[in-house]
Amino acid sequence: MSLDWIYYAISWILLLWHQAWDAIGVPDGAVLGTNWAWILAIIFLVVTVRVILFPVFVKQIKSQRAMQALQPQVKALQEKHKGDRETLQKEMMELYRKEKANPLMGCLPMFLQIPVFLGLFHVLRRLNPDKGETGKTLYGWTVDQFDSASVAKLFTAPIAGKFGSSAEELARLDADGTTVKIMAGILVLVMMGTTYLTSRQMILKTGWAEDPQQRMIQRLMLYGIPASLLISGAIFPIGVIIYWVTNNMFTLAQQQWVLRKFPPPPNVTKSGTTTSARGAAQPAKSGGLFGRGKTTPPAATKPAAPKVAGPKPGAKPTNPKKGQSASPKKSRPAKRQG
Predict the structure, then answer these.
(1) Which of 32-41, 53-62, 277-286 has the least mean pLDDT?
(2) pLDDT for position 150
(3) Which of 18, 88, 131, 169 is deepest in the core (most CB within 10 A)?
(4) Which stretches does DSSP call E strand in the chain?
(5) CA distance 36 to 239
């Protein structure tokens, strides 16, 4: 299946924003070693895509809320079918179908952004001033636009360069290898950090899932994807990393707004923990995005009053109440003296 339609769409949006910034008066030449019109075009490519996908993102949050509301029923099924994984999976799928909850909906926005990422990766990787006119005018570009983007830089590092660029590629881009590696390395670390924070933010607000499959997906999103970027980031052009970092920053702001508008269900506490069946919440870390707050202690309970053993039958009271006198002894009638 040809992906040309994606390359045309990404090129059209990118070139449209570049023309818009150029018309506003943002200089196309380098200022502080940076061609801001192209950098802003990449940033606003992110904004365009995220605005288009915003309804999908809201559906993702609603689906996650539905999954959280079902956690008590999921836990009951796990206890009921403990050791029978096949039956458990059937019962859980039936529960999801009945309640119209989709476990895969949580990953849908990310999957929809993959074509955009691949399209931008392909478009920026093609930037090469030595290409012929036919190669430069693919996907709706003009020769002038292609030549301008080919020499576009971020603090003297070309947006088409990458950490793993060969000496030949750097020579074509007229770039310094050390500068490209430093800039790309910094951006890769920022990309890893912001990718981790986007997953961390969601988990802090919604808590860990009870369903093992959902928990595994959460762990993959939190640790697996950021770790993989340390290796794969070496092949990403600097312009693609700018796109990724901007996308993460947009996600952090968007999630904060959506999480306030669609708070967790009642069975999830504010600190991000699910209340147990007995009604007691487990202590959890709170304190914002980085989770550096103090551990919330459990509510203090008043000590029980000591039990006082009652008096034995027939025994005299040892501690009569204050203000009350002991019952007077009955006096025996005096014997008459004859």
Answers:
(1) 277-286
(2) 92
(3) 18
(4) 153-154, 157-158
(5) 12
Residue 182 has pLDDT above 90, yes or no: yes
Nearest to 99 by CA among 123, 122, 68, 138: 68
List phi, psi (to 5°) of 31. -125, 125
Say how many Å lie between the first and final Cα of the chain, rounded. 136
Structure tokens at 145: 């636009």
Global confidence as pTM: 0.71
Token pair in block for residue 185: 């390395």
CB atoms closer than 10 angstroms to residue 277: 8
Average pLDDT of span 137-161? 94
Tokens describing residue 147? 């030549």
pLDDT, tens only, 194-239: 999 988 887 877 677 766 777 888 888 889 989 999 988 899 999 9
Q: Fill in the DSSP letter of residue 269.
A: -
Q: Spell out the residues 6+ positions from residue 292 whose beta carbon is closer than 8 angstroms to its own.
A: 285
Neighbours of 64 (CB within 10 A): 22
What is the spatial distance between Cα 262 and Cα 107, in angstroms, rounded to a whole number? 18
Q: How far is CA 53 from the centre of its chain?
A: 16
